[in-house]
């Protein structure tokens, strides 16, 4: 019985592209849930850092609501960046990245899945909790809604752009600061339009202009970031 | 079974391997057809792993080319990876996942459907019956290695590139792996492997290549 299994060629079936991509997404999420400290650290960093501002700036409701969009956006941006260096590092260290590059699916799509996993794990929770924190800043319901929408779109762009930085710095020591230097300038448009949308609502204007521009940045990032990241990963593995 | 039935050729044409500033090998050419086991030898640092990675398309050769069925592997890209199974130095498994979860993911990357009962059976045969539901971080080096090698039993790819497959294995597992490689080559598979152990294999074509000669 042992012998037959050892020598026999087993009957195998092929999977379609979507099931492969789903498996990649599911694996990243599963690994992260087994090791929750990484994910929860980002979440609590965001809550604590954002809550420090009202404590430090006194109880002037006008001042608070005026600075809320920028404070919440900058904090979300920094939280997103906290986890960037881990995006590919563990896969690189344990050899999974080699296997990923040797998959029969296009690397660009696989990279996109890894970016999505990063977004779901480290940014999506922030989108849900940000309106709650916004209440501390005396934001009205219209502002809170716009904040959630702008974060939903913006953080995905942050993960996409950040992926390029994470891939470029793979295998280099002390990546944290280097990623920040590479990626922060590229985050500026996302921050400007994201916080701009909420600011527009608070002065009684429509957020649509800023949101459309944010959407444009997101669309560009979806197209180019996976391509750039895949190319950078290929170089990192050589 | 489909892949093994058809004819395949792996060709290396005038490969030159360079690592940093150092020349590892030059003008390396070979042609491997169905049923061949190519056994790379050489001291540490002579470029065995570099050559294997070049064959896999993970490293680009400094000069020369690698072709699969007379098409350059650069051009084939993902199409080539429908045919190659690479097991390198690094395990390529996640320590937080169990053996079965890891296998499921490894198989998915090459588009192979995961068959739970087959995988369980293979892992049990490889002596991992007790560790099936443990995170692989709890397993010993040799056991982790067996989890990685279990792919050889579960995937249907005609070219195996194995970097030191016998490392950390005990006599029993070494024997099973050797038998599997022989069976695979006899069924028409192509194997390129490195090892520091002396092995002789009972296969249609057994070739040796010394990189430090």
Largest interface comes to: A-B, 38 and 49 residues
**What is the CATH H-level superfamily of chain B?**
P-loop containing nucleotide triphosphate hydrolases
Q: Write down the domain tally of chain A.
A: 1
Calculate the terminal CA-CA distance of chain B, rounded to whole Å: 38 Å
- DSSP summary, beta strand count of chain B: 9
How much helicity do the residues of chain B have?
Answer: 25-40%
Q: In the residues of chain B, how many domains can be counted? A: 1
- Class computed from helices, strands and strand pairing of chain A: mainly alpha
The helix content of chain A is over 70%
CATH architecture field of chain B: 3-Layer(aba) Sandwich
Strand ordering within the main sheet of chain B:
6-7-8-3-9
Q: Report the total helices of chain A.
A: 10
Q: Are there runs of chain B of 5+ residues with pLDDT below 50, and where?
A: none
Description:
The complex is a heterodimer of chains A (238) and B (213). Chain A is mainly alpha-helical and 238 residues long. Chain A has one domain (17-237). Chain A is built from 10 helices and no strands. In chain A, helix 2 (17-34) crosses helix 7, helix 3 packs antiparallel against helix 4 and helix 4 (61-82) packs antiparallel against helix 7. Chain A is elongated. Chain A starts with a helix and ends with a helix. The mean pLDDT of chain A is 91. Chain B has 213 residues and is an alpha/beta fold. Chain B has a single domain, classed as P-loop containing nucleotide triphosphate hydrolases (Rossmann fold, 3-Layer(aba) Sandwich). Chain B has 8 helices and 9 strands. Chain B has helices at residues 2-5, 48-56, 73-76, 99-109, 116-125, 141-149, 151-154, 171-186; strands at 9-19, 22-33, 36-41, 63-68, 71-72, 84-87, 159-163, 190-194, 205-210. In chain B, strand 4 (63-68) and strand 5 (71-72) form a beta hairpin. The relative contact order of chain B is 0.21. At the A-B interface, helix 1, helix 2 and helix 6 of A face helix 4, helix 5 and helix 8 of B.
């Amino acid at each position: 019985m042992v012998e037959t299994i050892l020598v026999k060629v087993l009957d195998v079936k092929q999977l379609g592209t979507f099931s492969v991509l789903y498996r990649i997404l599911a694996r990243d999420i599963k690994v992260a849930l087994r090791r929750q400290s990484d994910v929860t650290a980002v979440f609590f960093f965001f809550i604590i850092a954002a809550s420090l501002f009202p404590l430090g700036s006194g109880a002037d409701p006008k001042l608070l609501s005026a600075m809320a969009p920028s404070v919440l956006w900058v904090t979300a941006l920094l939280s997103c960046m906290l986890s960037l260096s881990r995006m590919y590092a563990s896969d690189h260290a344990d050899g999974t990245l080699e296997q990923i590059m040797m998959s029969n699916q296009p690397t660009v799509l696989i990279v996109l899945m890894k970016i999505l996993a990063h977004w779901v794990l480290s940014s999506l929770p922030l989108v849900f909790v940000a309106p709650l924190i916004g209440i501390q800043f005396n934001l009205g319901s219209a502002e809170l809604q716009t904040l959630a929408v702008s974060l939903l779109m913006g953080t995905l762009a942050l993960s996409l752009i950040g992926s390029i930085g994470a891939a470029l710095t793979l295998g280099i020591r002390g990546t944290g600061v280097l990623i920040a230097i590479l990626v922060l300038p590229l985050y500026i448009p996302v921050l400007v339009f994201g916080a701009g949308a909420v600011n527009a609502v608070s002065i009684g204007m429509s957020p649509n202009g800023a949101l459309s521009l944010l959407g444009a940045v997101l669309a560009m990032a979806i197209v180019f970031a996976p391509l750039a990241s895949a190319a950078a990963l290929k170089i990192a593995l050589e | 079974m489909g892949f093994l039935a058809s004819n395949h050729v792996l060709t290396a044409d005038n490969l030159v391997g360079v690592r940093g500033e150092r020349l590892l090998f030059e003008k390396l050419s070979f042609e491997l057809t169905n049923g061949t086991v190519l056994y790379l030898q050489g001291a540490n640092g002579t470029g065995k792993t570099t050559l294997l990675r070049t064959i896999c398309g993970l490293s680009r050769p400094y000069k020369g080319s690698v072709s699969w069925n007379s098409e350059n592997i650069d051009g084939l890209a993902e199409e080539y990876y429908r045919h190659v199974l690479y097991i390198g130095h690094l395990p390529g498994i996640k320590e937080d996942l169990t053996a079965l979860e890891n296998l499921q993911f490894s198989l998915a990357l090459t588009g192979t459907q995961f068959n739970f009962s087959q995988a369980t059976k293979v892992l049990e045969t490889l002596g991992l019956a007790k560790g099936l539901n443990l995170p692989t971080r709890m397993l010993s080096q040799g056991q982790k290695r067996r989890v990685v090698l279990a792919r050889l039993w579960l995937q249907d790819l005609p070219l195996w590139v194995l970097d030191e497959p016998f490392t950390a294995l005990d006599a029993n597992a070494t024997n099973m792996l050797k038998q599997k490689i022989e069976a695979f080559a006899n069924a028409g598979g192509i194997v390129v492997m490195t090892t520091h152990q002396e092995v002789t294999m009972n296969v249609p074509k057994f070739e040796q290549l010394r990189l430090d000669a």
